């Protein structure tokens, strides 16, 4: 059965970020992907130079109108990432509402890209738009720790806090929430990042299936760009294949990420040469070379189940 994704994200001519990071892996896994590029840059902004254009809310509307006029605006999934303009984000909200009305079973995967490590890198006036308009529409949400704290107004300093914050995010709308990275210490040591996942699937009879998981993800000492976009795309794909099992969906997603990152850092270090720090160009994700791992990832990151319950009245 054909499965079609509308992905509204940034685009770069060279390298992998936004739609460039999400489209190829989704296509490899059998999804049709319609891309709207919120920006078109020569390369990501971690390089010394970049040039390009930014799509306005009006231009986004024009593109969507064209799709609508041809009656090809039927989607199974919507995927959104980085946006730095409130009017653009509000136009995205309008499009999602219209597409959800046309297809009530449509799944919206939202990466609420706002900042990291205690600092926002989008204008602060985007936060209320995400909080009040975007997150309530989302079915799957992939914030990092800082973004989850911004959305809920709660700090995460323990595993219990992480669980409480995910529950608060569920109450805002999403059925599945994955905290893609946190600053919490890993039981496996300093070389691991801790991520959390939660699903709260509401059944028509008012009962629910709930699952909370934790993942220890190996750290790699380099700055990669586009990994968050790849994570959200892979979570979309693997939750499609495992809709009731967040544990296996997250294991496959994290394992794909690890394979791609390890292939990238190995290549970057070889090209840079001994003792040299790889450049942003050398650290571009080795996406095409990882095609086999994307299609059929060897599970090398296993999740721990923290809580599971079913048939509780909501």
Automatic annotation (TrEMBL):
<dbReference type="InterPro" id="IPR013749">
    <property type="entry name" value="PM/HMP-P_kinase-1"/>
</dbReference>
<dbReference type="InterPro" id="IPR029056">
    <property type="entry name" value="Ribokinase-like"/>
</dbReference>
<keyword id="KW-0808">Transferase</keyword>
<keyword id="KW-0915">Sodium</keyword>
<feature type="domain" description="Pyridoxamine kinase/Phosphomethylpyrimidine kinase">
    <location>
        <begin position="84"/>
        <end position="264"/>
    </location>
</feature>
<comment type="similarity">
    <text>Belongs to the pyridoxine kinase family.</text>
</comment>
<keyword id="KW-0460">Magnesium</keyword>
<dbReference type="GO" id="GO:0005524">
    <property type="term" value="F:ATP binding"/>
</dbReference>
<keyword id="KW-0479">Metal-binding</keyword>
<keyword id="KW-0963">Cytoplasm</keyword>
<keyword id="KW-0418">Kinase</keyword>
<dbReference type="InterPro" id="IPR004625">
    <property type="entry name" value="PyrdxlKinase"/>
</dbReference>
<dbReference type="GO" id="GO:0046872">
    <property type="term" value="F:metal ion binding"/>
</dbReference>
<comment type="pathway">
    <text>Cofactor metabolism; pyridoxal 5'-phosphate salvage; pyridoxal 5'-phosphate from pyridoxal: step 1/1.</text>
</comment>
<keyword id="KW-0547">Nucleotide-binding</keyword>
<comment type="function">
    <text>Catalyzes the phosphorylation of the dietary vitamin B6 vitamers pyridoxal (PL), pyridoxine (PN) and pyridoxamine (PM) to form pyridoxal 5'-phosphate (PLP), pyridoxine 5'-phosphate (PNP) and pyridoxamine 5'-phosphate (PMP), respectively. PLP is the active form of vitamin B6, and acts as a cofactor for over 140 different enzymatic reactions.</text>
</comment>
<keyword id="KW-0597">Phosphoprotein</keyword>
<dbReference type="GO" id="GO:0005829">
    <property type="term" value="C:cytosol"/>
</dbReference>
<keyword id="KW-0007">Acetylation</keyword>
<comment type="pathway">
    <text>Cofactor metabolism; pyridoxal 5'-phosphate salvage; pyridoxamine 5'-phosphate from pyridoxamine: step 1/1.</text>
</comment>
<dbReference type="GO" id="GO:0008478">
    <property type="term" value="F:pyridoxal kinase activity"/>
</dbReference>
<dbReference type="GO" id="GO:0009443">
    <property type="term" value="P:pyridoxal 5'-phosphate salvage"/>
</dbReference>
<keyword id="KW-0067">ATP-binding</keyword>
<dbReference type="Pfam" id="PF08543">
    <property type="entry name" value="Phos_pyr_kin"/>
</dbReference>
<protein>
    <recommendedName>
        <fullName>Pyridoxal kinase</fullName>
        <ecNumber>2.7.1.35</ecNumber>
    </recommendedName>
</protein>
<comment type="subunit">
    <text>Homodimer.</text>
</comment>
């Amino acid at each position: 059965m054909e499965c079609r994704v509308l992905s509204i994200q940034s685009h770069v001519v060279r390298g992998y970020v936004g739609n460039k990071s999400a489209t190829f892996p989704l296509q490899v896994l059998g999804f049709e992907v319609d891309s709207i590029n919120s920006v078109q840059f020569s390369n990501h902004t971690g390089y010394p130079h970049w040039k390009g254009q930014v799509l306005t809310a009006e231009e986004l509307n024009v593109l969507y109108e064209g799709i609508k006029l041809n009656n090809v605006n039927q989607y199974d999934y919507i995927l959104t990432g980085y946006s730095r303009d409130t009017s653009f984000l509000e136009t995205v909200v309008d499009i999602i509402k219209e597409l959800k009305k046309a297809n009530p079973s449509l799944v919206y995967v939202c990466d609420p890209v706002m900042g990291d490590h205690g600092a926002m890198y989008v204008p602060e006036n985007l936060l209320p738009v995400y909080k009040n308009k975007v997150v309530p529409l989302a079915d799957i949400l992939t914030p990092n720790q800082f973004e989850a704290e911004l959305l809920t107004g709660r700090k995460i300093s323990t595993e219990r806090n992480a669980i409480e914050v995910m529950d608060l995010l569920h109450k805002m709308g999403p059925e599945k929430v994955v905290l893609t990275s946190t600053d919490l210490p890993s039981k496996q040591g300093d070389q691991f990042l801790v991520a959390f996942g939660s699903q709260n699937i509401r059944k028509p009879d008012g009962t629910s299936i709930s699952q909370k998981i934790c993942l220890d993800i190996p750290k790699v000492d380099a700055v990669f760009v586009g990994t968050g976009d790849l994570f959200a795309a892979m979570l979309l794909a693997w939750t499609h294949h495992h809709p009731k099992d967040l544990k296996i969906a997250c294991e496959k997603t994290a394992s794909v990420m690890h394979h791609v990152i390890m292939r990238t850092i190995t290549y970057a270090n070889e090209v840079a040469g001994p003792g040299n720090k790889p450049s942003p160009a050398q650290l571009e994700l080795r996406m095409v070379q990882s095609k086999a791992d994307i299609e059929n990832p060897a599970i090398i990151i296993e999740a721990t189940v923290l809580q599971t319950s079913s048939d509780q009245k909501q």
